[in-house]
Structure formats: C-alpha cells, structure tokens
C-alpha cells in the first residue's frame, strides 16, 4: 500500500509541475501577481509531494518520472493551450521521453 501511495503522490507532484510551468509562463517573469502566486504555491506542493514520494521510491526513479511528467505535460499544454508548434521532431522528443519514463518504471523494483 505504501508503494501505491508513493506512486500516486509522485503523479500528483508531476501534475503540479505542469501547473507551475504553465503559470510561470503566464506570470510574465513574475510581473503578474496572481499567476506568480499560483506558480509558487504549485512549486511548493510539487516539491513537497516529490519529497514524500522519495521516502519510498528510489531517487533516480522518482526524479526522472517527476521531471518527465512535467516536461511532457508542459509540452502538451504548450501545444493545446498556448498554440505552440507541433512538429514531428518535437513529437519524437516527447515520445522518447515517455519511452524513457516507461522503461524507468518497469525497471524499478518498488
């Protein structure tokens, strides 16, 4: 049960990483108060949940999965919400990141 909870905490931490990345963009270099505040709160939540997940999960696995969720999630939000370019090379990069995440998960005993 502890391992399942650690993975759930890690997934939420990754989702909060996507939130803070989006609002960091919206903050315009921390010049807008509300997006800046959301960024800071989401960062604290994300780091806190990552730290809790790391009590159970290996460092390399937890950190890799956390950053991968954030990277791919921010990529998707950038395309869907912000209208950023969707190019074959960017898609390939995202697929490679996800492939690495899957491989990291299946190779972790916890």
UniProtKB/TrEMBL annotation:
UniProt keyword terms in alphabetical order: Cell membrane, Membrane, Transmembrane, Transmembrane helix, Transport
Membrane-topology descriptor: Multi-pass membrane protein
InterPro entries cross-referenced by the UniProt entry: EmrE-like, Small_drug/metabolite_transptr, Small_multidrug_res
One cellular component term from this protein's GO annotations in UniProt: plasma membrane
Transmembrane portions of the chain: 6-24, 36-57, 63-82, 89-107
Leader sequence segment: none
Gene Ontology MF term list: transmembrane transporter activity
Annotated localization: Cell membrane
Main subcellular location: membrane
GO biological process: xenobiotic detoxification by transmembrane export across the plasma membrane
Keyword Transmembrane included in the entry's annotation: yes
Pfam families given in the database record: Multi_Drug_Res (PF00893)
Keyword Thylakoid on entry: no
Family: Belongs to the drug/metabolite transporter (DMT) superfamily. Small multidrug resistance (SMR) (TC 2.A.7.1) family. Gdx/SugE subfamily.
Name recorded for this polypeptide: Guanidinium exporter
Organism field: Dokdonella koreensis DS-123
């Amino acid at each position: 049960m502890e391992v399942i909870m650690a993975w759930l905490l890690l997934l939420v931490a990754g989702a909060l990483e996507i939130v803070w990345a989006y609002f960091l963009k919206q903050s315009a270099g921390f010049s807008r108060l509300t997006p800046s505040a959301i960024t800071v709160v989401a960062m604290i939540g994300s780091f806190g949940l990552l730290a809790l997940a790391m009590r159970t999960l290996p460092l390399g696995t937890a950190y890799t999965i956390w950053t991968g969720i954030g990277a791919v999630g921010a990529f998707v939000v950038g395309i869907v919400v912000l209208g950023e370019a969707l190019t074959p090379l960017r898609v390939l990069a995202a697929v490679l990141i996800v492939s690495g995440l899957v491989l990291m998960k299946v190779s972790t005993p916890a």
